[in-house]
Amino acid sequence: MRRHGLARPVGSRVLGGASGSVPPAPHMEQFVDSAAFSAWATRLTRPFIFTSPFGRRDFALLLFVGDESVTADERNAISDAVVACGCRYAVCAGADCSSWDDAIDWAYIETDPKDDSAFVMTTWHEDEPIEKVAEFLVFSATYEGFGDPPPRRYLVACVGDEAVYVAARDAVREQLRLRSEQR
Fold this sequence. Notes:
The chain has helices at residues 72-84, 97-109, 130-140, 162-182, and strands at 28-33, 38-44, 59-65, 87-94, 121-125, 153-159. It is an alpha/beta fold. The protein has one domain: Protein-Tyrosine Phosphatase, Chain A (Alpha-Beta Complex), CATH 3.90.190. It has a 6-stranded mixed β-sheet with strand order 1-2-6-3-4-5, with helices on both faces. The longest helix is centred in the C-terminal third of the chain and has 21 residues, at 162-182. The radius of gyration is 15 Å and the shape is globular. The termini are far apart. The model is unreliable at 1-24 (pLDDT under 50).
């Protein structure tokens, strides 16, 4: 089954946005910057422009959706940008998270990969507390070919709700602190 109505967002891989008709990139907040990890957070609101602070270098993503009004076309455009920006592991949680998991899978498949060098693993975590989802991201978002040793770059992207953004960012910060203590 193919997705319909796809349009890659113009300028979706550029931080800061450009003048003209391209909306500015979302605010990015770096909340962990250590020798072991770099972690950033962003809150996406309409028009839902997804960017990565890592350029095209690989990263693990926690995508938490707090806005149930996101359309299928918006979800697909965000998913396309997630894959284009270098995400290698997408942990989806919140509203309709299994559809987000599927959309990111389709976005990867539609790149027509010739090998697994840019493979994107996805998981969805329906009705799980944000602390458990953050723990999964930091301690389990790895597979052969990505994250061995554990990923160094993490992005928390929340669609919609400010309170969820703060909770997700803080939960990932705490899990990264715990992971650092284990090193």
